[in-house]
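Final report, closing paragraph on structural work. Over the funding period we assembled a curated collection of sequence-structure pairs, and we close with a single example.
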Amino acid sequence: MSSIEKNLLKAFCCLTGFLGLAGGAGAVALARQTAFPRTLSLEEEEAYEKEHGLWGDFSSLEQIAYTVKGLNAYLLHCEMIPAEEPSCRYVILTHGYTSNRLGSVKYLSVYRSLGFNCIIYDVRGHGENERTAVSLGQFEAEDLRCLIEDSYVRWGEGIELGLHGESMGSSISLSVLRSVSRLRFVVADCGFSNFYELMKELFAARRIRFLLPAVNRAMKLYCGYDMRKTDPAGALAQSSVPVCLIHGSADGFINPEHSRILSRKAKGYCELHMVEGARHAQSREKIGEEAYGAIVRDFLRNIAFPVDSPQNEAERKSEA
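Its predicted structure, as stored:
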């Protein structure tokens, strides 16, 4: 079981009995538990990645730290890991629920081998960022939009920019497509189609589905958002940006059917890859760097993104 599954299921287990007795008060408690989760520290995430053989050579790579103002000037902590050779290819990687920017380290070798500069960052309410309500995509998509805009200013108008998201990060990366079209691609790993529908499934498994409307009302009142509006599928239906969906067939937290729904909703080019036997957020670990990298590389080839012979595009970037 992944760290994401453990943290969320622990919260549901602790509150299920209380919810059955306390009704409205329990709904508020669960809303706050979801919006203000216990998140991993950078040290805890690093230890997890190393324990699972996913850290690679990250410690030896150049890491350029900076901050970006997101929605309502909320401060996001970011790092840019340069490509091995100067390149105008950039990818922004968004981590999952309760993780932090170091949860994206496992994907860096995949993209750097294709000539990408990699931007990792702490999602609001995670990592080194100030504690605040987490909406799993609604507020965070606006933060990502700000980061995208900053990337074109900071690294150059001529950059070729794509997104990669894992779990909640997938939701964020797809949700931003409502407001941003200037992207070359999105790779969305083990994401959900709609936050409310996901919670409906999780509540049903704990026999507390009847409380979901009350929990959503509590979310609106105390956390400022409606779970129904965190709707990656709706955003995908409005966008022509090419998307690659990846999902583990043994995902016990976000049912693989969510990625199938996303695939059917896609307006533009879309690929769907099911990784046999992979649990939640573990496809990269299950099949290894080479096989996972092949999925990404072949997808980029299919959308005519040049990956076979990366060229030095620093001149183009400086001219833009």
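The beta strands are 64-69, 75-81, 89-94, 117-121, 160-166, 185-189, 243-248, 270-275. The chain has two domains: 1-38+199-229, 45-194+231-319. We thank the funder for supporting this effort.
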